[in-house]
Amino acid sequence: MTLPILVGLGMTISTLLTYKLKPRFWRKWLGMLMLVCGVIAFFKLSSKSDELFAALLMLTVTGYSLFSSRDQFTRDQD
């Protein structure tokens, strides 16, 4: 897969998860899982290829985004 396609696919998945996944429980745990897996894989596999680096970066950023905004939709309901 080429780098622009991989980045576009990663951004699409990230956007869908950020705006469509609303339960706090799933945002919190999926965010933590993606963040931890992304950081561990980043340090283990970062020197392999540019495509893998981009995928791991997207995974880590998406995980952080989900975890940090886990209360986004619960505040709107109150």
Give the arrangement of secondary structure elements:
Elements: H1 3-20, H2 24-45, H3 50-68, H4 72-77
Helix pairs in contact: 1-3, 2-3
- Which range best describes the helical content: under 10%, 10-25%, 25-40%, 40-55%, 55-70% or over 70%? over 70%
Terminal CA distance? 44 Å
> Beta-sheet strand percentage?
under 5%
Number of beta strands: 0
Structural class: mainly alpha
Q: Note the main sheet.
A: none
Rg, Cα atoms, Å: 14 Å
What is the overall pLDDT average? 85
Parts with pLDDT < 50 across at least 5 consecutive residues: none
Which geometry do the CA atoms define? flat
Q: Determine the number of helices (DSSP H or I, runs of at least 4 residues).
A: 4
Output the helix-strand order: HHHH
If you had to describe this structure to a student in words, what would you say it looks like?
With 78 residues, the chain is mainly alpha-helical. The chain is built from 4 helices and no strands. It has helices spanning 3-20, 24-45, 50-68, 72-77. The radius of gyration is 14 Å and the shape is flat.
